[in-house]
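Protocol step 4 of 5: obtain the predicted structure for the target chain.
Materials: sequence only (see below). No template structures provided, no constraints applied. The aim of this step is simply to have a reference model before the mutagenesis design in step 5. Sequence pasted as it appears in the construct record:
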Amino acid sequence: MLGIIGFITIITIVGLLLTEKTSPITALIIVPIIGALVAGTSIHDIGLYFNSGAQKVFPIVIMFIFAIIYFGIMNDVGLFTPMINKMVALSHGSIQSVVIGTVFIAAIAHLDGSGASTFLITIPALLPLYRRLRMSPYLLLLLVGASASIMNMLPWAGPIGRAAALLSMNPTDLWRPLVPLQFIALIMLVPMAMLLGVREKRRIANLPPLQHSLNEMAHNNDGSKSPATLSTSNTQPKKLAMNVLLTLSVIGLLLWGIIPSGFTFMIGVSLALSLNYSKVSDQMDRIKAHAPSAVLMGCIILSAGAFLGILTGTKMLNALAQDIVTVLPNAILPYLHIIIGLLGAPFELILNTDAYYFALVPIVEHITSNVGVNSQSAIYAMIIGNILGTFISPFSPALWLGLGLAELKMGRHIRYSFFWIWGLSILLLIVAIMLGIV
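Step 4 output (structure tokens):
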């Protein structure tokens, strides 16, 4: 019964997010509480589970709030304007150039294995360009998420570390056979991005015309740059060199990891305000301008943490993972790891990463090893099938961060991205089978 209650709870939350029938905060708080009460959990224990879940995401909340304010200030002072103008000029309004560039920029940004820092680096930098070219920000989030998910196979990223712990292996040893697959996956992502770019170009062609064409935005007839923009302000950059140096320093600290990310952005906000605004009233105005979106998404991330804490503490996720396996017929057991891999992306909608790797994966590995399947091969199948779905999951705090930075909705993102991500993960698993990895 516990697994059934967990399944109903998760499906209800996903359904509410997809249909946008209620706010994410309501769905992530009220539904798990009801599920826990039905499962016989006491109010006291629910409170303990809430604290456990909230504590895990609280550092992300701090980072998120100050990151939003920091990049908001940088946008106010025109930091991104020269870069966006240059990219528009180089692309000549070419959507294909932009989508391909997004794939590789996100891959480089995710070399540290942190989804949060990847979104913090890519979204604020690329979103103005997407808006300038009238491209959908959901396409930006899809491409960044897909590219980052491929790079998430790195040994210092979460999934490989979890899987290595299950096999008592060194994460680097587990990762090495996946290196060629990562390169192949990025190559496969490029034509998908181009196909999406063609679709996006057709969508934009059907939009009402604007006063200035894309080429006019980059250059006037005499070759001089035009100040015209589509959706970004005409703010002229202020103290550009110093703001660039400050932003690079903030990003460098994020990648270095010598101090917590939230503290990094606290320092960044303090220095950005002091550098760009001499009056205290102006500094407070900038904070007030960006605080609403930062606080709102901070509340949503805390809600997601509470949701995870309750479902984990009540053992609903573990029970659900076990129930999924026990209802399967014996005839498919030798292929169970491949079946789970093929369904890896959908599992991201009902199981968080910890539940998948610490509850479902060990059960499947144990069952398949008893029927002669190599344990490492089984683990690879489940990693490859699941990992591309990392950033379509409402269980991912980093995804909520990306949504907040781009001011997008979870339900619409899932509808926009899910089948593209699932299709890519299936193709990648087929490639892994052909290469003998699985």
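Step 4 remarks: Residues 43-76 form the longest helix (34 residues). Residues 121 and 411 are 23 Å apart (CA to CA).
Proceed to step 5.
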